[in-house]
Structure formats: structure tokens, C-alpha cells
Write a structure and sequence with these properties.
Helix content is 38%, strand content 23%. The chain is α+β, with helices and mostly antiparallel strands. It folds into two domains: 40 residues; 48 residues, IHF-like DNA-binding proteins (HU Protein, Chain A), CATH 4.10.520.10. The strands form two sheets. The chain has a three-stranded antiparallel β-sheet with strand order 1-2-5. A two-stranded antiparallel sheet has the order 3-4. Helix 1 crosses helix 2. About 15% of the residues have low confidence.
């Protein structure tokens, strides 16, 4: 889903104009970013939590030349899905998204058949 599709869904569900829905989505995103920038976490019950993790400085390698490279410390955003969201994603009820049902199969599952063309 793209941001534009999200705005359309919000506009339709809340019976707002696209312009108002876009502003609403922007406000939510800005709020999340501002909160994370202040080092605070965001917990949305049933959905998940956003946090900032600190990554320490480390040595890496330039993949092209193989030369050692210093990678500076940085802060990275992290999303941890909540229990309810995990359950909804893995729910095998009828009407679920078809790829969700297929993703529960093991890669080594021998019962899979190649597609018929």
C-alpha cells in the first residue's frame, strides 16, 4: 500500500475529502517522527510499538574494493508488531489475503506443485 492509497482509504472510511485525509495522515506521521526524535517510544495497543535503537560504530568493508570502512554510530527506527496484529496477519479465515495463506507453508514443503502454464 502506498501513502496515496492510505489517504484514499482514510478519506473513504472517515468520509473526508482527500485533502483533509492527506493532512490527517501527515499529522500522524509527523507526530510519530517527532516522538521518536525525542527518544520516546510509541505504543499502539493491538497494533505494535515504534522505538529507536542505537547502533554502535563499527568497521565494515567496501563491497567493491574490499577496503575497511568506518561506519559511524546511528539511531534507527524499529517497529515491533503487537500480538493482535501478528494473529490477524496469520489468521487463516476465509477472505484472508491469499499470500498470507501461502506464506505459512514451509519452503521445504514437498506437497507444493509447480504452476501449470
Amino acid at each position: 500500500m502506498t501513502k496515496a492509497e492510505l489517504v484514499e482509504d482514510v478519506a473513504r472510511a472517515a468520509e473526508l475529502t482527500k485533502k483533509d485525509a492527506e493532512r490527517l495522515v501527515e499529522i500522524v506521521f509527523e507526530s510519530i517522527i517527532e516522538t521518536l526524535n525525542h527518544g520516546e517510544k510509541i505504543e499502539l495497543r493491538g497494533f505494535g510499538s515504534f522505538r529507536v535503537r542505537e547502533r554502535g560504530a563499527r568497521r565494515g568493508r567496501n563491497p567493491k574494493t574490499g577496503d575497511p570502512v568506518s561506519i559511524p554510530a546511528k539511531r534507527v527506527p524499529y517497529f515491533k508488531p503487537g500480538k493482535e496484529l501478528k494473529e490477524l496477519i496469520n489468521d487463516d479465515n476465509p477472505g484472508s489475503h491469499s499470500s498470507a495463506n501461502n506464506s505459512s507453508r514451509s519452503i521445504s514443503d514437498d506437497s507444493r506443485q509447480p504452476p501449470i502454464l
